[in-house]
Specification:
Blueprint (H helix, E strand, L loop, with lengths): L18 H7 L1 H4 L4 H14 L3 H28 L1 H9 L4 H9 L5 H8 L24 H23 L5 H26 L19 E3 L19 E3 L21 H13 L11 H5 L3 E2 L5 E2 L12
Parallel strand pairs: 1-2
Antiparallel strand pairs: 3-4
Helix pairs in contact: 1-4, 3-4, 3-8, 4-9, 8-9
Length: about 300
């Protein structure tokens, strides 16, 4: 059960309207790294989580993300406040209104005209929010890693938004939201590392023949070696021949078919076989045949008649 408290988790102070900045802020409102996506990701994970500790953590963080959605939504609304009234009451001349909504080099005209300077669930480019942003797979060792990455991506977006404004109040609120991304990342990491084992993700064991092999597939200038591909635990394979059919087979795609299917496929192959010995004319070639111009010149395909050429 949810109960809403009208007091925000962090006070929003906006010094002046700025529709262009409001449009950029939509990235964290209805974008893939935004607060709604985070809340839905963690909430749906919590619903199906069987571990009581992780379940409680996911519900807590999912609910906090909704409070962050409220904060970023209020920032957007405050930044749009002046434009909202001006649009609704049409107080400006056409030229002045056009200058305001099209200036700044962003898509704020879309959100102002289409959404009335409101807070739509879209990203800064106008793309509607979608549940496709939620990448939960139902395996805690995989989902927690995805959550860690999601918090990291959100922090980076907040850093970029902070760099886009000199409004002190907006900077403070965004810094709070950015900081909470780090706190959540720490919680998810703690939960992940409290699972033993937690790597590799899932239950099934890996094939030891390939788990410590590094295939040097991209060869040429710029190759580097490091802990990710060298050391006692790694077998570094650079020989092209040894990168193919590593299972010891032929490297061909094979399937065992019933005899009746084999006969049908043979008949299909014979019916559709191309004859490499023939050179049939094509429609394109026939269309490029000799052309006669208006003055009676005969022109070969690809040739351009010169002025005064004999007929």
């Amino acid at each position: 059960m949810f109960a809403h408290n009208k007091r925000l988790q962090y006070t929003v102070r906006v010094s002046e309207p700025n529709p262009g900045l409001a449009n950029l802020m939509l990235e964290q409102f209805g974008g893939p790294q935004g607060e709604l996506a985070a809340a839905m990701r963690y909430f749906t994970q919590a619903v199906s989580e069987d571990d009581p500790g992780r379940k409680d953590m996911l519900y807590d963080i999912a609910t906090e993300e909704l409070s962050h959605l409220e904060i970023i939504g209020h920032i957007i609304a405050m930044l749009n406040k002046g434009a909202k009234g001006q649009l609704a009451e049409a107080v400006d001349t056409e030229a002045e209104m056009y200058r305001k909504i099209s200036g700044g080099g962003n898509d704020s005209h879309v959100t102002q005209i289409l959404y009335g300077a409101g807070t739509p669930l879209i990203n800064s480019a106008g793309v509607p929010w979608t549940a496709a942003y939620i990448d939960t797979i139902g395996e805690p060792s995989a989902d927690l890693r995805s959550n860690i990455a999601a918090e990291a991506r959100a922090k980076i977006v907040y850093e970029r938004l902070i760099a886009c404004t000199d409004d002190a109040g907006v900077k403070e609120a965004l810094t709070f939201l950015m900081t909470r991304e780090v706190a959540h990342q720490k919680s998810f990491e703690k939960a992940l590392y409290s699972m033993n084992p937690n790597f590799p993700p899932g239950k099934m064991p890996v094939d030891p023949r390939f788990s410590n092999t590094y295939f040097n597939m991209s060869q040429g200038p710029g190759e580097m070696r490091g802990s990710w591909n060298q050391g006692e635990q790694w077998e570094f394979v650079t020989d092209r021949e040894k990168q193919m059919a590593v299972d010891g087979g032929t490297g061909e795609a094979e399937v065992k078919l019933p005899a009746k299917d084999i006969d049908i496929l043979k008949a299909f192959a014979e019916r559709t076989m191309s004859n490499p010995a023939v050179d049939p004319p094509t429609g394109a070639e026939l269309g490029m045949g000799n052309q006669t111009t208006a003055d009676g010149l005969t022109v070969q395909p690809g040739a351009i008649p010169s002025p005064g050429a004999p007929k």
